[in-house]
């Protein structure tokens, strides 16, 4: 009798599972509009209540100047800064008297055009790719860019940024070393150890190996992120340079730009912004592949 009950139970569970499979299989095509589900077309609204300390999600750039700051807001450059900036040949310029823009991208020496990393903060400030994802962990934050397949770490465990001999041992890197702490609802991030070969932005402004940044990140609404940058670089600038407020909007998980037929995220086939010369036409100025 007991064996019959067990057999009946197994059969019943199997039938339930078989009945459920078609439902699960059809989930991604229910209410299709032009071969896409309705929820893929119309993002769900955000709840008015949110945790201002939760920065996680995919954010899309919507506001703020594409340079570190609007035209003519930079402090005067030092003699070394002027000399360095004169070497740059950007495709757009806010200081044409020092570095005039070139009309042909092939004449530009902007490192990123030739598949070199943009570095921090240019990868956040520039406009080649406007999406980036924030992954929040207990003791650090990861920022992810589809462009370059880049990752940035922001440590939240109470450590200090490296300095002195420690910083010299670690050396410079494209994204530098970032440490953050909360001041109210604003995450204040200090950044050091940046590689000065990467320009400050695509307008040709330089930054040196000694540049230090304070980045102030505030989630001011459920779907709004505001960021202000302050650069301290006495090698190239006579005073700190405070940026304008740059803004991002949060993408819903079911929004079309970040959801590729049910696959959420920046690395799920929506595009492939990796600078690959084989995707170009003989030069690196058109080397970004895409689907």
Walk me through what this model shows:
It is a single chain. This protein has 5 helices and 14 strands. With 291 residues, the chain is an alpha+beta fold. The protein folds into 2 domains: 2-30; 54-286, no CATH class. The longest helix has 25 residues, at 2-26. The protein is globular. The termini are far apart. Residues 8-41 and 286-291 have low confidence and may be disordered.
What descriptive keywords fit this protein?
16% helix, alpha+beta, 291 residues
Helix content: 10-25%
> What profile does the largest beta sheet have?
9 strands, mixed, barrel
Mean pLDDT score, rounded?
Answer: 82
The best one-word shape is globular
Structure annotation, total helices:
5
Roughly how many Å is the radius of gyration?
24 Å
The quaternary organization reads as: single chain
> How big a fraction of the residues is strand?
25-35%
Order of helices and strands: HEEHEHHEEEHEEEEEEEE
> How do the strands line up in the largest sheet?
3-4-5-6-7-8-9-10-12
Work out the number of β strands.
14
CA-to-CA gap between the ends? 61 Å
Question: How do the helices and strands line up, and which of them pair or pack?
Answer:
Layout: H1 2-26, E1 32-33, E2 36-37, H2 38-41, E3 57-63, H3 79-86, H4 122-125, E4 131-136, E5 140-145, E6 150-155, H5 164-170, E7 177-183, E8 186-192, E9 212-221, E10 224-232, E11 241-242, E12 246-251, E13 259-260, E14 263-264
Parallel strand pairs: 6-7
Antiparallel strand pairs: 1-2, 3-4, 3-12, 4-5, 5-6, 7-8, 8-9, 9-10, 10-11, 10-12, 13-14
């Amino acid at each position: 009798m007991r064996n019959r009950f067990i057999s009946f139970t197994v059969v019943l569970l199997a039938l339930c599972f078989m009945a459920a499979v078609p439902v699960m299989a059809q989930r991604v095509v229910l209410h299709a509009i032009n071969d896409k589900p309705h929820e893929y077309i119309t993002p769900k609204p955000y709840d008015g209540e949110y945790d201002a300390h939760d920065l996680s999600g995919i954010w899309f750039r919507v506001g703020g100047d594409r340079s570190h700051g609007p035209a003519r807001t930079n402090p005067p450059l030092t003699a070394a800064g002027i000399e360095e900036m004169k070497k740059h040949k950007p495709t757009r310029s806010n200081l044409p008297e020092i570095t005039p823009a070139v009309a042909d991208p092939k004449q530009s020496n902007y490192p990123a055009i030739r598949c070199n990393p943009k570095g921090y903060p240019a990868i956040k400030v520039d406009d080649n790719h406007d999406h980036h994802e924030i992954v929040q962990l207990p003791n650090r934050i990861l920022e992810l860019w589809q462009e370059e397949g880049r990752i940035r770490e922001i440590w939240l465990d109470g450590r200090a940024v490296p300095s002195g001999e420690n910083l010299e041992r670690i050396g410079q890197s494209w994204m530098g070393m970032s440490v953050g702490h909360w001041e109210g609802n604003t995450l204040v991030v200090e950044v050091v150890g940046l590689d000065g070969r990467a320009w400050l932005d695509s307008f040709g402004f330089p930054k040196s190996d000694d540049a230090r940044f304070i980045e102030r990140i505030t989630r001011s609404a459920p779907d709004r992120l505001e960021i202000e940058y302050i650069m301290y670089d006495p090698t190239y600038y006579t005073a700190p340079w405070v940026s304008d407020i740059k803004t991002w909007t949060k993408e819903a998980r079911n929004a079309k730009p970040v959801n590729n037929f049910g696959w959420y995220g920046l690395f799920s086939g929506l595009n492939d912004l990796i600078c690959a010369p084989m995707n170009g036409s003989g030069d690196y100025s058109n080397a970004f592949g895409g689907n």
